[in-house]
Amino acid sequence: MQRWLTGWLVAAVGSTIAGTALAQPKDTIYDEAQVPAYTLPDPLVMRDGIKVADADAWKGKRRPEILRLFDEHVYGRSAKAQEKIAFEVTSVDANALGGKATRKEVAVFLTGKRDGPRMDLLLYLPNAASKPVPAFLGLNFYGNHCVHADSGITLSKQWMRPTREMGVVNNRATEASRGCCAQRWQVEMILDRGYALATVYYGDIEPDFPDGWKLGLRAALSPQGKDTAFQPDDWGAISVWAWGLSRAMDYLEQETAVDAKRVAVTGHSRLGKTALWAGAQDERFAIVISNNSGEGGASLVRRRFGEAIHHSVSMVPYWYCTQYRQYAWHEADLPVDAHMLIALIAPRPVYVASATKDLWADPRGEFLAAKHAEPVYQLLGRAGLGVDDMPPADHPVGDFIGYHVRTGEHDVTAYDWDQYLSFADRHFRHGRGK
Ligand code: GCU
After folding, report:
1. What is the reported pTM?
2. How far apart are the CA of 321 and the centre of ligand 1, in A?
3. What are the residue boundaries of the structural domains of the chain, listed by start?
């Protein structure tokens, strides 16, 4: 963090961290002409050079190989699921949001121990439904109370990044924090279209600062606790947050009001990276949505456009495994790139969304990664994007790989949600994507 703030000459203010302007370094490439020449690893060629000829070879050999490569070189190996994970419903209101929804809060004890690490899941279920509903699941940036002004949501007591606009004072949420991210969640729209919404504060799983791991799951699960010395492929924060999404899915599988075969995992920015990595590993997620996830998510690192690896590993090294640092300025040595992360989701539907002004996340790099995942979808008998060129702003494209670039900033808007809901309608309601 230090080097990020002091070592670089700050040139522009662009991308935002959940509403907070973030300075960007001067060496950032924002001109297509400066993108270096690069060759992408072929997702359909094994490390030993053997071509992946059919779906069986993809599923049995190449997919596990690519998963391992992301474990070892990018995000770090995740812990296995704990056998004794425990849930407790802590509140239910069948008449929430003026009768539109049932609001449920569930404590998830991540190691099964009541005094161990815990995350709190908020669930809104549409009351108009007569049978189990499909759901969207996503981590939130500022506590469950940030997704809606609903005073019945328990105010998070966890550590939070100090953001005044979000009503956070002394690293804690206040009453003023309620609904501070409501625009990004569109709860009523989701419910009106017949979906449930499940969300968890990502800081419950691990607080987002360099030593946050000492307070979260990583220390709790490691035999050495806070004295852990990181191995090159030990998990970084993105893997830990993704692990939390899988535990939320464990709960949804036993929630009778939700159809667990139709759960879409979604996330914005760093939490979009997290949604992709969770969806890549955990095949229970039937749809995966990446909103403006950028570097370390959906955009090709070899382009070095916008955020590059050398920026990420200086600014937020703890999001990744320590091995990832080797690829700063040496992207060509990385055995994977973002198109392979997206390909890991195949044949399940995946949606990648960019924004025109979100150059830090490299919209074209996000589009190209989606495009280069297409051969894997095709091998598995699924149509991918269906276009060769990046579509104009606000023109969603794609079949099993959806894509749009929205006019505007790094954000999640009603427009984005409208596309995700239509994408989910198309795949869930019409029996596709299974
Ligand atoms: C920074 C970071 C991005 C990240 C974003 C966010 O801009 O460089 O990689 O996506 O924060 O999560 O808000």
Report:
1. 0.94
2. 17
3. 4-75+286-429, 86-263
